[in-house]
């Protein structure tokens, strides 16, 4: 089975192959996501919590503005208790990611819920035929074992398991996880092909919380200190996808897919100490989700005005069942003293889209549209609860809404490999179900995006650059540290992005990207907090055969620059520059690889926040905002031995 990427229809679409992924250390999902142009992935709450994402001027929190898909399985979770669009990618085994298909913006009809800043799709496959063992030992108690089996020539048929654990680089950072991913592709004859993808994942992790900047300066805390000991959680995810490619009829191709996902999360955090309650502000959140979905895609060519027109049609539906709670616990003994959320949610999204591309000489015109119908049912077990009575507890409500989105693009070919693009698209994110009232028209957050750009495609050099803008109606940002949603009205993101992939000489690979963005509230022209105004990334790799040893030497580095991010109260975060490096030597069936992250041992802050807190219950309460941070990892080295059989 040959799986091809969708042809690029805008300046900012890019495919990142395995050769680029191999240039720098990729030992977890954060390392994989950081290669996406302009994307920042922050892992500030331990090894098991979903990463906080920043892209194109959006603080996407844990996924609300970036649509993520792995092997056809959606990752974003609707109406999640911790963050809208919660996208936990920690189940991914990075060795299985063969390529990333990145569609920044919302200019394509196939992009659905949460595709506001963009969409990232990961294609899975095993690199080599046979059995591969990879064992890793590293600093801070890091231990990891990955076993991959690829029985035949098809890289899309594989099974892989990962076991990992570590003590972390400071207090309250220990973790343990296990992940299994397996996929089989079948040729059933007569042009009928099938694919089955399944997996299971579980993790238990600790979280260090935050450090107050004034506590660090006064010597009450160290840079890598933890705050409160009960933070952390457990996560599990089980998933299955079955897909069928129907026999081709001329230019027509049809794919049908059905998928199911079961997920559970239990998370404990305390970011404010004793600011709200003398017993402690610790929150335990649970979220159990079940997802069932169907998807159909049909592509074909038709003739219009004696010109070939490429059509892409899609239909789908997704039903999510969610059970979620939120309770406050005492810091002294961990017992609960208040219930804040106890809800059951059923959320159904049914969609359809169409997209057509008409070439006319050097010009090409693209037009598409998408419609999503959303139905929501909520049972709130705590609504109207009165301790004086046993009856009258709980409240049910439902809502319905439709989002209509237009997509359009113009392309002009300057040469066979160089073109100019103009793109427009309507994106959206679905609402948080518990915020809706009975009979309300489900209020999607509407996004209008536009882009002007250019791209050049070549075997040795590919380049793209674009000017972009996104207007968001009725926007909000959620400060997850204190659980407060701030509605801002209309907001505007603008910026410039550029990316380059080069393979100038045999064995030499380079991927460079930079994004400059701005995010403001339209009415006041005030800057939105937390977004990343400047993100630059460089991945460089070099391979050279060593004939005298019969071996292959590989060297690589990954460099990241993140400019100061605006924070609340007119403050800014610090600039971050990180350098990762790897060196590998392979001879026959054996390979030895040294990975070093944060090579310069930079003392950097993975997350920085400004809000009020009280960590010492003996001090007077105060609402004066203070700076807080979560520490990024110091220099960490690990050694991996690979055996290929």
Keywords:
globular; 22-stranded antiparallel barrel; mainly beta; 645 residues; single chain; five-stranded mixed sheet; 3 helices
Structure description:
This protein has helices at residues 18-21, 29-33, 213-217; strands at 13-17, 40-42, 52-55, 58-59, 66-70, 73-74, 97-104, 118-124, 130-138, 142-150, 158-166, 175-189, 192-206, 211-212, 232-245, 253-269, 282-304, 307-329, 336-360, 363-380, 395-413, 418-429, 440-441, 445-456, 461-479, 484-502, 508-521, 534-546, 551-562, 566-567, 571-572, 576-587, 590-597, 605-611, 626-631, 636-644. The chain is mainly beta and 645 residues long. It has a 22-stranded antiparallel barrel. It has a five-stranded mixed beta sheet with strand order 1-7-8-5-6. It has a three-stranded antiparallel beta sheet with strand order 2-3-4. β19 and β20 (363-380) form a beta hairpin. The mean pLDDT is 91. Its main location: membrane. It is a multi-pass membrane protein. It is found in: Cell outer membrane. Belongs to the TonB-dependent receptor family.
């Amino acid at each position: 089975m040959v799986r091809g990427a969708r042809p690029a229809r805008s300046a900012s679409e890019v495919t990142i192959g395995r050769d680029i992924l191999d240039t720098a250390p990729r030992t977890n999902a954060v390392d994989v996501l950081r290669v996406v142009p302009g994307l920042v992935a922050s892992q500030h709450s331990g090894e098991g919590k979903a990463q906080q994402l920043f892209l194109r001027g959006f603080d996407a929190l844990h996924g609300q503005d970036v649509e993520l898909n792995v092997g056809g399985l959606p990752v974003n979770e609707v109406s999640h208790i911790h963050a809208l669009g919660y996208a936990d990618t920690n189940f991914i085994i990075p060795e299985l990611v063969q390529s990333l298909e990145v569609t920044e913006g919302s200019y394509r009809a196939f992009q659905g819920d949460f595709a506001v800043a963009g969409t990232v799709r990961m294609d899975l496959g095993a690199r080599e035929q046979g059995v591969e063992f990879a064992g890793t030992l590293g600093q801070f108690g890091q231990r990891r074992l990955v076993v991959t089996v690829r029985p035949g020539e098809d890289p899309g048929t594989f099974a892989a398991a990962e076991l990992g654990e570590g003590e972390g680089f400071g207090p309250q950072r220990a973790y343990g996880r296990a992940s299994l991913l397996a996929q089989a592709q079948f040729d059933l004859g007569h042009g009928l092909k099938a694919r089955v993808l399944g997996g299971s994942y579980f993790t238990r992790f600790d979280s260090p919380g935050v450090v107050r900047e004034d506590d660090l300066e006064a010597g009450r805390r160290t840079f890598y200190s933890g705050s409160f000991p009960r933070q952390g959680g457990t996560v599990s995810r089980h998933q299955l996808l079955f897909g069928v490619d129907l026999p081709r009829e001329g230019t027509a191709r049809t794919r049908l897919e059905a998928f199911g996902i079961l997920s559970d999360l239990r998370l404990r955090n305390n970011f404010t100490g004793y600011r709200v309650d003398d017993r402690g502000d610790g929150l335990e959140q649970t979220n159990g989700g079940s997802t069932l979905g169907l998807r159909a895609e049909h592509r074909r060519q038709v003739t219009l005005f004696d010109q070939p027109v490429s059509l892409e049609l899609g239909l789908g539906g997704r039903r999510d069942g969610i059970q979620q709670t939120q309770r406050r616990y005492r810091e002294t003994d961990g017992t609960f003293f208040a219930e804040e959320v106890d809800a059951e949610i059923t959320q159904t999204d049914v969609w359809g889209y169409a997209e057509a591309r008409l070439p006319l000489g050097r010009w090409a015109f693209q037009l598409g549209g998408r419609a999503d119908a959303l139905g929501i049912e909520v049972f709130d077990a705590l609504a109207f609860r009165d301790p004086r009575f046993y009856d009258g507890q709980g409240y049910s409500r439902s809502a319905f809404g439709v989002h209509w989105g237009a997509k359009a693009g113009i392309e002009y070919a300057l040469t066979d490999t160089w073109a100019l693009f103009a793109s427009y698209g309507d994106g959206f994110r679905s609402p948080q179900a518990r915020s809706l009232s009975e009979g309300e028209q489900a209020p999607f957050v509407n996004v209008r995006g536009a882009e002007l750009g250019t791209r050049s495609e070549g075997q040795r050099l590919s380049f793209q650059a674009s000017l972009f803008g996104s207007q968001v109606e009725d926007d909000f940002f959620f400060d997850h540290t204190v659980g407060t949603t701030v509605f801002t009205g209309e907001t505007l993101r603008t910026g410039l992005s550029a990316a380059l992939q080069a393979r100038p000489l045999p064995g030499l690979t380079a991927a460079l990207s930079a994004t400059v963005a701005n995010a403001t509230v339209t009415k006041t022209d005030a800057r939105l907090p937390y977004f990343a105004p400047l993100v630059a990334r460089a991945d460089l790799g070099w391979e050279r055969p060593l004939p005298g040893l019969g071996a292959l030497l590989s060297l690589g580095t990954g460099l990241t620059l993140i400019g100061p991010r605006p924070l609340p109260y007119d403050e800014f975060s610090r600039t971050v520059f990180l350098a990762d490096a790897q060196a590998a030597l392979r001879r026959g069936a054996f390979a030895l690889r040294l990975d070093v992250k944060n090579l310069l041992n930079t003392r950097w802050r993975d997350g920085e926040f400004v809000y009020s807190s009280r960590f010492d219950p003996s001090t007077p309460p105060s609402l004066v905002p203070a700076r807080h941070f979560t520490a990024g990892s110091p220099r960490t080295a690990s050694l991996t031995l690979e055996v290929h059989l």
